[in-house]
Automatic annotation (TrEMBL):
It holds the Pfam family Fy-3. One of its GO terms (cellular component) is cytoplasm. It comes from Engystomops pustulosus (Tungara frog). This is Interleukin-20. It comes from the Eukaryota. One of its GO terms (biological process) is regulation of mast cell degranulation. PANTHER family: PROTEIN C12ORF4 (PTHR16525:SF0).
Amino acid sequence: MYEEHGQLEESFTIHLGAQLKTMHNLRLLRADMLDFCRHKRNHRSGVKLHRLQTALSLYSTSLCGLVLLVDNRINSYSGIKRDFATVCQECTDFHFPQLQEQLDVVQQVVLYARAQRSQKAKHQQGK
């Protein structure tokens, strides 16, 4: 699908707040998302400069995010999740825990939230 249509891009500016409005810029892209995660190896020093800029932007006030749509199986690595995990393993920056550690935390939080919802539903049925 991506190969047929190429990259599509649309930008939006949204204002949030009733009295004190804050402006946010939003850019939607349809592209190969892993291109945004891989280090570019065009020039000899290009990788180092790209990694330095990435590290500096992690702690800036101009935050960026990427949403990667996957299925609901947290610990299965297939398709785009496998490719994303491979990119994560290639990156040796130590700003965040390993991908598997992050996924384990997500799984624990999901299980806890599910238990809380179940307990709340049982409590409400008992009333």
